[in-house]
Amino acid sequence: MTSSSQPSGAAEVFEEAAPSYDRTGVSFFGPFGAELVRQADLRPGERVLDVGCGRGAVLFPAAHAVGPTGHVTGIDLAPAMIALTAEDVARAGLDHVDVRVDDAQQPDFPPRSFDAVLAGLVVFLLPEPQQALRAYARLVRPSGRVVISTFGVQDPAFVAATDALAAHLPTEEPRPTRPAGPFADEQAITATMTGAGLAVTSIVEHRVESRFDDADHWMRWMWSHGARALLRHLPTDRLPAATADAAAALEAARVPGGGLRLTTEIRITVAVPVEPPGPPHA
């Protein structure tokens, strides 16, 4: 999920994107998901919840990490995402993985059900991120952890191309926003996690280089994830001009020999639940 400007019907956006989500030949969600799992330090036999699982960028490496003695549950609010990911899970023969439709804002599980709750590029999309994190804190055992990823610095060419598209939106449509508020920087992330009853143990930055054949390939990728929230509001008669302006902005990312190269940074935050204070001494 790559756009921080989601409409209230975010589930509808990802429902439409599900068939092509992470299936356009671009290295993006997979490397980010694998690094989140690495930072989570999952161990064989652990029980894990992957919120906003999408097509499994976090789910599958987590399943590998906990092994057949562990268990991974993936949830997503878009039924098509869950249906397609369930097919992938079945094809892979992963009996210790299940996926279901559920809300990342307030997952429906008993307290202390998991050793780890993972959320890859999803919490900032939720209507009440800190409330969601508080729910995750309740779901992990005292020795467990909550691990999330949020966007850091985005490639200037990506920002310019996205702004070029947004310039063609009708005046009443909101423009994309940059990472800000509760996840703007390490200080904001720490304060957000603290307010949710979580103590941050580490925040690391991770960068991924994504390559595209050309601007048309980039546009197909944009339609395949959360950026669809912007594109679907572009009037049909404005789309050719918007695409041409985006292509011009992307020229800054062209590499020798052809193609485009964009670099994206995320921050991966690991936090543990803070034990509530005990009763005062007599």
From TrEMBL:
Gene3D superfamilies: Vaccinia Virus protein VP39. Residues 44-156 form the Methyltransferase domain. Signal peptide: none annotated. SUPFAM superfamilies: S-adenosyl-L-methionine-dependent methyltransferases (SSF53335). It comes from the Bacteria. It holds the Pfam family Methyltransf_31. This is Methyltransferase domain-containing protein. It comes from Micromonospora lutea.
